[in-house]
Amino acid sequence: MANIVTAVLGFLLLGLIAAYFKFLYRKLRPGEPPIAPGHWFWGNCIQFKEHAVKFLLKTHAMCGDVFTVRFLNQHITMVLDIHSYERFSREKNFDFHAIEKQVNRNVFQYELVNSRKMIREAGQKVNGRHLFSSMENFAQNLTEAFKETISGEADTQASSNSNILKADAAMQDQSEKVKKLNILNTAPSATTRNNSAINDINSVSSVHQQPSPAPSLASPDDTTSDPIININNDTIGQKVSSWHEDDLRNFASRIFFSPLFYSIFGRGVKGQEKSFQPQVFHKMFDQFHKYFNFLWLGVPPQLFPEAVKAGAVLGQQPHSGEMVKRDGCSEYIKFATEFMLKHGQTEREIVSHNLVFLHVNYNTFRVVYWCMYKLMEEAGVMAALKAEVDEVIEAKRSGATPEEAVAEFTADDINKMPAVDSFLKEIFRCMSGVFMIRKVLKDTSFTTESGAVYNMREGDRVAIYPPAFHYDPEIYEDPETFKYDRYIDATFYKNGKEIKHPVIGFGSLCPGQKLAILEIKWFIINLINSFKLELLDGERTMPNINMYGHEILPPTHDVRCRFLAKEKPVKLTYFNNFGTANTHREEERS
Ligand code: HEM
Fold it and tell me: Which ipTM score applies to this complex?
C-alpha cells in the first residue's frame, strides 16, 4: 500500500514538474527580451496587483525598455519606451482583434461576426460629420439632465424608478424572453436571479431612504451605495435653490451618465421604460463591472452571482427594431444593429453588443467623476477653470437681460480653452489604468525607436503601459502631484527627445476619443456655469491602484459633496457648425 501511495505521489510530482516547464517556465530564445524576476508560480501577478506602475518602473530600471512579465502562464512583453508608441501601434503582427474577441467571449458571452469591418465602419459614426451630430445629441441630453436636476425632477424620477422596479419585481413572470436575454445566462434560473436582483435593489432602497444618509464609504463601484434610491426624502422634487447634499457618484450619474445613456440608446415613451433607464443601468453596470478583470481572464461568471444578477437586468432591453426607432438613438447603435442583423446575429447578441458599447462609453463617466472631484478638491483648480469659463462665456454672451443671456459654442470653441484642456489631460495622466495590449500573431522582430531589436514570440501578448509613462519622473516633474495647468504651452522630453504623445489614455485604436473629449469638456463648462459645488468637510478619495488594467481607475471610495444651482446662469448652447471651411480644416489637422 505504502508503495502505491509513494508511486502515485511520485507521478503527481513528475506531472507538476512537467506542467511547470510546459506552462510557466520559459527558456529565452536568442534576441528575446529579458524576463522580469517574479514568483515561480504566480509570476508577476502579485507585484502587478500591489502597484503596477511602481513594479514596472522598477523593472524598467533593472531590465531596460523592453522586458517580459508573466501572469501565471500568460507572458506579456512590455514595451516601455514612449518614443516607440507609434511603431508599436503600426506593427501589423500586433493584433488587437484577438483581445477584443476575448473580452466579447469571456465578459459579454458572445461573438461579433466580421468584427473588424463592423468596428471600422461603426467607428465612422462618431467621427467626421457624425462627431458633430453625436455631440449635438449629447448636448441636448445634457441640457435636459441639468434642467431636471435643478428643478428637482431628476430626484422625482429616481424615486419613481425605484417604484417601477418594485412594480416590476411584483410582476416578474417566468418569462423565457428574460432568460434568453440575460448576457450571463449560464444557468437555467436566470429569471429567479433577475427577480432577486430587483428585490435586492428594493431591499437596499428601504435601507437607504433615510432622511439623512450617512456619508458613504463604499466604493463607487460598490453595490451597497445605491444610485437609484439613495435619495434624501426631504429634498425629493425640490428645486435646487439651496445647497443639496449627495454622494458624488450619484450626482455625477444624474447629470452625466443619464445624458450619456440617452445619447447612446435614445429615449422611449416616458413612463413605459421599466428597467431600461439610465439610473438602473448605471447601478447594474457598476455591479457587473466590478468583476470585469476576472471575467476577461476567463474566470467563469458562475463564481460571481452578483455579476450574473446584474447581467439579468442589463439583458432587459428593447427589441432591436424598437431600439433603433427610439428618439435620439445613436448612429453607432443603429449602424451596429443593422450590421449584426445582416450577419444573422441574434437579439441576445445585439443586447450583448449594446452593453459592450455602454462599457466603452462608461470610461467617459469615470473621467467625469474625477473631473468633478478634482474641481472640488482644491479651491485653486476650480478658481482657475472658472476664470477661463466665465471669460469665454462673457465674450460670447448675447441677449439684453440676464434672462435672455445666451452663449453659443462650436466644437472648436470647446477645444480651444487651454486651462480646461490641460486640466483634462492631467486627469487622464493621473487616472489612466489602461493596458494597450495586443496578441503577437507570428514571431516578430520589433525595432524600437532607438534602433534596438527584440524578438517577440508568436502567441504571446505585447503591451504598452501608458500609466508607467504618465508617472515617469524623467518625463514629469513631481509626477505624483496633480497640476491642472501642467500641459499649458508645455513640451515633454525623455532621453533628451521631445515626446509626440505624452498622454495615451485612449490607446491608438479608440474611435470614440474625439467625441469623449468633447463631451467631457462641454460637461465641465456647463457644470462650472450652472453649479457651485463643494466636498463636505474631510471628504477625500484617491484612484484605486488595485484596479490597474481598467481604462480609467475607479476611486477607492466615494465622497459626499454638496451643490447649489446658480441663479440665472447664462444659457449655453452647442452649435453644430460642421460644413464650414474652418471646421473641415480643424478636423483634418486633429
Ligand atoms: C474617456 C473615454 C474613453 C476611454 C478612456 C477609452 C479608451 C479606450 C481604449 C484604451 C481602447 C483600446 C485601444 C487600444 O488598445 O489601442 C478603446 C477601444 C475602443 N473604444 Fe474607447 N475609450 C473611451 C471612450 C469611447 C467612446 C465614447 C467610444 C464610442 C464610440 C469608444 C469606442 C471604442 C471602441 C469601439 C473600441 C474598440 C476599438 C477596436 O476594436 O478597434 N470609446 N477605448
Answer: 0.98
The answer to whether the CB of 436 is under 6 A from ligand 1 is yes
Do residues 532 and 375 make contact, with C-beta atoms less than 8 angstroms apart? no
Concatenated DSSP letters of 167-233: HHHHH----HHHHHH-TT--STTHHHHHHHHHHHHHHHHHHH--SSPPPP-S-TT-TTS-TTT---G
Which of 115, 360, 501, when mutated, tests ligand 1's pocket best, judged by the most ligand atoms within 8 Å of its CB? 360
187 & 309 share domain:
yes
* Confidence at residue 274, expressed as pLDDT on a 0 to 100 scale: 75
| CA 95 to centroid of ligand 1, rounded, Å | 15
Residues 141 and 49 in one domain: no
547 domain-assigned:
yes
Instruction: Write the residue with the smallest CA distance to atom 26 of ligand 1.
Output: 512
Domain extent, residue 223, equals 116-430+505-589
| H helices present in 378-475, as ranges | 379-396, 411-415, 418-431, 466-470
Task: Find out whether 510 is annotated in a ligand binding site.
Answer: yes
Which atom of ligand 1 has the smallest separation from the CA of 508? 16
Domain with residue 43: its CATH number is 3.30.43.20
| pLDDT tier for residue 200 given thresholds of 50, 70 and 90 | very low
The helix, strand and coil proportions of the chain, stated in percent and rounded to the nearest 5, come to 55, 15, 35
The finding on whether 512 has its CB within 6 A of some atom of ligand 1 is: yes
244-289 residue pLDDT tens: 999 999 999 999 999 999 999 999 988 777 789 999 999 998 888 8
CA 130 to centroid of ligand 1, rounded, Å: 16
Closest of 494, 499, 435 to residue 464, by C-alpha: 435
The protein residue with its alpha carbon nearest to ligand 1, atom 6, reads 506
Q: What is the pLDDT of residue 400?
A: 83
Statement to judge: residues 78 and 186 lie in one domain: no
> Is 115 close to ligand 1, i.e. is its CB under 6 Å away?
no
Residues 483 and 510 grouped into a single domain: no
